[in-house]
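During the reporting period the student researcher (J.K.) took over the structure-prediction task from the postdoctoral fellow and processed the backlog of single-chain submissions. One of the processed entries is reproduced below for the supervisory committee.
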Amino acid sequence: DSGDLDIDGSLREGSDRNLKKDITTVANPLDKLNKIRGVDFTWKRSGKKGGGVIAQEVQEVMPDYVANLHNGSGHLGVDYNGIIGVLVESVKELKKEIEFLKVKTGENNG
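J.K. obtained the following structure tokens:
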């Protein structure tokens, strides 16, 4: 079944280093993000507006972040917390590019 989950407060997922192994930094985060779309949509069942990504598109690029919902529908779900890591590394990569361009521009104007 599907629907909304509303909470007052915070929703936390375990993220402690001591709970994890084989930790690596996301490789090529911008390349991954460029292959998926951020979308606005309307849920067929409720008619409510929503936003996010398309699981099938994420599955092509980051299959570990997509799983079957196991509700008999065959529908897929996305690990949005996994995508947050890709977004964090993408912002850092873009920041490096901006800093490089600022230095390059300063050299050309000096």
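The committee noted the following: The two ends are 63 Å apart (CA to CA).
J.K. will present the remaining backlog at the next meeting.
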